[in-house]
Amino acid sequence: MTAQWAYIKDLPSLEGKEVIVKGWLYNMRSSGKIHFLQLRDGTGTVQGVMVKKEVSEESFMTAKGLWLEASLEVTGSVRKDERAPSGVELSVSGISVIQNPSDEYPIGKKDHGIDFLLDNRHLWLRSSRQQAIMRIRERVIWSAREFLHNDGYLLVDSPIISGAAGEGVSGLFEIDYFDSKAYLAQTGQLYAEAAAAAFGKVYCFGPTFRAEKSKTRRHLTEFWMLEPEVAFYDHKDNMDLQEKLICAIVTGVLEHCRPELESLERDISKLENIKAPFYHLQYGEAIEMLHKLGSDTPYGDDLGNDDETILTQQFDRPVFIECYPKSVKAFYMKEHPEDQDLVLCDDLLAPEGYGEIIGGSQREDSYDRLLSRIREQGLPEEPYDWYLDLRRYGTFVHSGFGMGIERVVAWICGLQHIREAIPWPRTIYRLKP
Prior knowledge:
This protein is α+β, with helices and mostly antiparallel strands. Helices cover 30% and strands 27% of the residues. The strands form four sheets. An eight-stranded mixed β-sheet has the order 7-11-12-19-18-17-14-13. A five-stranded mixed barrel has the order 2-3-4-6-5. Helix 4 packs across helix 6.
């Protein structure tokens, strides 16, 4: 019977069968008469054992001359091996070389600097650590979308090219758009608000862009954001949704990505502790706590990265910081009914020093107050005429938030820097590869 092509992930169910594995040589060691070939194919890794007396001389010598990352077709029988991570290994009977590199693979076993690894990001993604991170990223996205879909949310794609700012003009990437100026979207929120007036419960998901010259470990110039928007949800409803979403994401990762978390040496017990209810602090309470902990951030300032780190180190679960001063938040946020200097908003901070992963608010539903805020911030009115229409025709209480995918992934994986949480990081100094 002719051997059939099989993916490595499926090998445990093919014990005793002869198969062909198509993939790449991830590692290799030899002990005279035996080659141990570590193979990967994108679905997993498996060890192929090639014994000299069981294969042709040509095959054995071919294997001896392979460089790392050679692309191969390896034939062999699947046998059980309880010591192997996958529970099986491959007894190799033949090998066909698709391409053998002409020189040594650039990323070796030695330590490499981060700049070298980022310059070679197209190759670095092949490493076991990066594959684990990318699989967790995919599960974070899948779990979030599954949660929203099952709760009746409609995905509504928002444009990447926009004529108006969502978070302030200082953070915009301006582009030439035929005979006018346009911007790369900072957020899909304004469009999600329009969709919420049509469908009630919606979300958008896609890349967003911020032209901030930030060098912190939490910032990218291009990142992916999930943005739900819900009709007739107030500030409290909005936070309840955020809490449920984060719990669903963490549960999904723990259920489906435990091997990846273990390979990253993540303290899983800290993730298992992520359950409702989360903690809540009013902005004023947060400032007071920060002062007691040594921070000199004055009341009225936005919280910086260091402030968020200090705060989240005091809690074992995420913490909501609620109702910031109006002066440091976006024009579209609803004024606090009991204090006109505050807005009904929240930042959700992840524990262990990871800081903000979600920013949300109840939206201003009054036409007059929204127009006043646009004018206060010196924004041009014409690009927002359609947004103001939402308050002219059937205005309604509504709320929403933006969740940064990379920040969630960095927290769940326990990464030191957000740049590993996205396949192709874009920072102020990096546009390649």
